Amino acid sequence: MPEPILTLSHLSKSFGALKATDDVSLDLRPGEIHALIGPNGAGKSTLIKQIAGEIRPDSGSVTFEGQAIDDLGPADRARLGLARSFQVSSVVPGFTVLQNVMLAVQGASGASFRFIRPALSDRNLTAPALFHIQHSGLDGRETVKAADLAHGERRRLEIAMALAMRPRAFLLDEPMAGMGAEGAHDLTAILAELKSEAPILLVEHDMDAVFALADRISVLVYGKVIATGTVDEIRKNPEVRRSYLGEEA
Ligand SMILES: Nc1ncnc2c1ncn2[C@@H]1O[C@H](COP(=O)(O)OP(=O)(O)OP(=O)(O)O)[C@@H](O)[C@H]1O
Where is each ABC transporter domain found (predicted)? Predict the structure, then answer.
């Protein structure tokens, strides 16, 4: 089995008397989508925030690519390639496909967006941007404004921009939220492609998407992982059915 990219060991976090994270251990392995599901208030977002460095756990530790990252803040963790989302909102509608991807390449290099204009004429950004555009199936569309892209092409642009950030792992907290059925369907296809570039820890309430995408699922209830397994194992698990999936599973 390949070494995990991300490992959580015995993480715990309380808010007053409430144990939002209760001795959670799990890992994320290369090439996989590991979904984190559970009822409202189970502690999914709190866990993601501890991985991203936005909340400090009371105890336990997070290892990323073999390195303990407990002392790093969110910016340093992002710089190591721990991508908190794939920054869909960062698409600039008035910029072309090439310009948008160049900005993402520039962002990955840690440069500031204050220098947006020089970036757009920087040849060092053009070559990697064109590579990601081609890799995402958008070649020939470099000079089209993002606002004028067809729906599916816009998703391809988001993939190109995500890849330009050179992520080593994605932490996605409810990426399907607020999307219609078509959007969720598109995003499902995108995530299935992205996981081969970088594994994804996915918090998602849309069970159709989770069951279609996840290689493994962990179920969180009252801050505790009550089960981790494949889609089939989780669907059949009596404790999961009782505490979360109900009769729908
Ligand atoms: N900053 C905070 N201060 C106090 N309590 C908090 C804080 N953040 C979260 N909580 C509590 O911790 C528990 C876990 O919340 P969290 O948002 O992590 O759950 P969740 O599984 O992501 O829920 P949902 O599915 O509704 O998004 C909840 O009871 C919540 O009210």
Answer: 6-247
